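Database export, one record per block. Field names are fixed; values are copied verbatim from the stored entry.
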Amino acid sequence: MSANLVHALRTVADRLAAGAPFQWGHMGHCNCGHLAQVVTRRTAAEIHQAAILRRTGEWSEYAHDYCPSGALIDDVFEDLLALGMTRQDIAHLEDLSNADVVAAVGRGHLRRNDRDDAIAYFRAYADLVERRLPVPLPVRPVSTPATTTTRDAA
């Protein structure tokens, strides 16, 4: 896990809180899709299209079946792994199911397709990862959450 992962998780939470398109059944607008957008700087449409070309149903399925083939979705997946995530972490993120993160949220069961639950999960996950870093992160300046562009809405 890395400081870059902490920043990416918080950026996603801020984007979702600001109203970025959220659709769990869309590979670019779901939980992992939003993280992939932030990490790769690819649009939701690009991520979704890459997943469709690979016939990927859900991020958790892809995490289970991952085998590098040189496809664009593999590059996206490898960027998530490069942050220090594991296949299991990615599956948990998609389903909002990591027991430690869910406990940190403090609300019991989280629904993977609920924006507020996703925001809470991303923030709690960032906090847990940050606590595990060997060096504390500098204090984050207060800023306006990033908004989604029309390009991201595809």
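Remark 1: Confidence is low (pLDDT under 50) at residues 142-154.
Remark 2: The radius of gyration is 15 Å.
End of record.
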